[in-house]
Specification:
380 residues; mainly alpha
């Protein structure tokens, strides 16, 4: 007999699952923006927390230490912008204005690779660059899809910094609330996993900061020494692209090399040599010494994972690909691989039978005690 009620339950659950997946797909873009904003806030809070922990050793209260770290970071960032932005904007405008001539020179060097005229290529490239120099809000990424402009992004950044400060000033309620989501017998393990994630993310941020500064300075010095124009523009763009592992360095090196070839083949080769040299320093010294000790990810995992994260989260997701990959790797290792390996080891120990080399001799059993007779008690 057919159980129509069971079939109806299965069909109802299937419809609910499909509806949930459709709703999730429709809200995916909104969730991406929220996820990236929350992750960025947590990363800033972890940095402030680490600084406040260090300042506590000097008997500075944690709220005051977190505030000092936040203000120091804002001051340093503002000073860097004050020193770099004016010449960067000036050189960027000059570069955009010279794009038609640059494209024309490059067209002569590559012998008319495209079928279009040199002037058409130059004007098209200039029009593409003007789309972003005249409308910088287009660089914001997915935030524009929900109506955020430049002012909205700045307000969101301020709000993120305030939330990060409160998270770093009093992390105990937040961490204890997260731990309460786990069963009581698993909370110690969950706290260990959170510590691993914190250490990994702090190491990544320290490595990225050092890598950006070292790469930017070396590229600026190298491109200036070979006489390449707009060295500051190329160095700043390449140092920002350090946030995207492997692919950022490659993409950042394409414009200056092409610009060098537009001037002369020798200068293009020199620009390529500068980028290859800086890349070798970055791969062999900066990343292994600063980042690899804490971000324990294989280069192949990072290279493939960056593509996957970028595909799922969009362009903005590329800049937080390493923390996302680190989170996935640590959670899978701690909550799946290690328990599975421990279960296999326990099962193997149960199946092993220890061989006995010598047969144990049984000790002779003592003779049974005879009960006292009443006559012996009386005689005694």
């Amino acid at each position: 007999m057919v159980n129509y009620r069971a079939i109806e339950r299965v069909a109802f659950r299937t419809v609910l699952l499909v509806a949930a997946l459709v709703l999730f797909g429709l809200a995916f873009q909104q969730l991406i923006t929220l996820f990236i904003a929350v992750l960025a806030t947590v990363l800033v809070a972890i940095l402030l927390d680490a600084a406040a922990t260090q300042l506590e050793r000097f008997r500075i209260p944690r709220p005051a230490g977190a505030l000092i770290a936040l203000l120091a970071g804002v001051v340093v960032f503002a000073a860097i912008l004050f020193l770099i932005i004016p010449p960067f904007v000036d050189e960027t405008n000059k570069f955009v204005n010279n794009v038609p001539q640059i494209a024309s020179d490059l067209q002569d060097r590559v012998h008319d690779i495209t079928g279009e005229s040199k002037s058409a290529i130059g004007h098209r490239a200039q029009k593409f660059a003007r789309r972003y120099t005249d409308h910088p809000e287009r660089l914001i990424g997915p935030l524009t899809s929900i109506g955020f402009g430049v002012a909205g992004v700045l307000a969101a950044l301020v709000l993120m910094l305030i939330i990060a400060y409160y998270m770093a000033a009093r992390p105990e309620p937040l961490t204890s609330g997260i731990l309460r989501l786990f069963p009581p017998d698993r909370r110690t393990h969950a706290e260990h996993v959170m510590g691993r994630l914190r250490e990994s993310w702090v190491g990544w941020m320290q490595g990225v900061a050092v890598d950006m500064v070292v790469s930017g300075i070396l590229l600026y010095v190298g491109l200036t020494l070979i006489g390449l124009e707009y060295a500051l523009v190329f160095a700043v763009i390449s140092s920002l692209l350090v946030l995207v592992p492997y692919y950022g360095s490659f993409v950042g090196g394409i414009p200056p090399v092409l610009f060098g070839f537009a001037d002369s083949p020798g200068k293009g080769l020199l620009a390529l040599a500068v980028y290859v040299g800086v890349q070798q320093i970055e791969s062999n010294f900066t990343i292994p010494l600063v980042m690899s000790k804490t971000v324990n990810l294989h280069p192949a995992v990072i290279a493939i994972g960056v593509l996957v994260v970028g595909r799922l989260l969009g362009f903005a997701g590329l800049f937080v690909a390493v923390p996302v990959l680190s989170f996935i790797t640590v959670t899978i290792e701690e909550f799946w691989i290690k328990p599975m390996e421990e279960s296999d080891r326990a099962r193997a120990r149960e199946e092993i039978e220890l061989p006995s080399s010598v047969d144990e001799e049984k000790a002779p059993e003592p003779p049974p005690k005879q009960p006292f007779a009443l006559e012996e008690v009386i005689d005694g």
